[in-house]
Task: inverse folding
């Protein structure tokens, strides 16, 4: 069965500092991995996705993530955060093939402090 | 271009009642999925429909049902509402029903259901 673990429920960070949001997944088959962002009172927006190929994936708004198969991790990073990055971030996994069922983690609230 | 639109945005029901939520996908998208997001948790998959047929169902009771219309819009119905059904219900559309190369999910802003 698919599952996603986001180890930190909240991450406070000062503006212009780097940030890493952690994500670990479990699955017995090949997976596709995603990071979504949810701003207050809005739906989810895709930040980036890993399908295959290079393990370093670049997304929108300066975010990037690295797929590590041996550690079953897909951590999200940004070298310098802005106030506008304050939001909730969800790591998610889907099986390769089949229909588009996505399993989400419980989310990490990123709070950027001025 | 219009994104995924959902209605109503907010609604309040009492236990035992029934609710219908509506979703219009992005123009040209043939797949619609529904997710339930309880406060403080990540979204949970309820259904996916593609070309008017159910492609996948999550671990939800039979009180939850959905359908997709010829114009690819969709409705989610929940019968015999329980307090635990209070949540944000998200609709997502995608161009294709399978695969992820061109199958990105685009989410609406959701319908927030409160059951009293």
Result:
């Amino acid at each position: 069965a698919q599952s996603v673990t986001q180890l930190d429920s909240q991450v406070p960070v000062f503006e212009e500092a780097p940030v890493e949001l952690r994500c670990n997944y479990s699955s017995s088959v090949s997976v596709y991995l995603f990071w979504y962002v949810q701003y207050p009172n809005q739906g989810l927006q895709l930040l980036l996705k890993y399908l295959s190929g290079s393990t370093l994936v670049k997304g929108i708004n300066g975010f990037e993530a690295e797929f590590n198969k041996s550690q079953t991790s897909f951590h999200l990073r940004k070298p310098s955060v802005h106030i506008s990055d304050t939001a909730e971030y969800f790591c998610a996994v889907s099986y390769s093939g089949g229909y588009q069922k996505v399993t989400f983690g419980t989310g990490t609230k990123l709070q950027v402090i001025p | 271009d219009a994104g995924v639109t959902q209605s109503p945005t907010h609604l309040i029901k009492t236990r035992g009642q029934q609710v219908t939520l509506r979703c219009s996908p992005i123009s040209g998208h043939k797949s619609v999925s529904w997710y339930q997001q309880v406060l403080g948790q990540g979204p949970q998959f309820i259904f996916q429909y593609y070309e008017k047929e159910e492609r996948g169902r999550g671990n939800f009771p039979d009180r939850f049902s959905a359908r997709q219309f010829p114009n690819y819009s969709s409705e989610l119905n929940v019968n015999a509402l329980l307090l635990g059904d209070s949540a944000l219900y998200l609709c997502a559309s995608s161009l294709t029903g399978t695969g992820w190369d061109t199958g990105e999910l685009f989410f609406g802003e959701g319908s927030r259901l409160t059951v009293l």
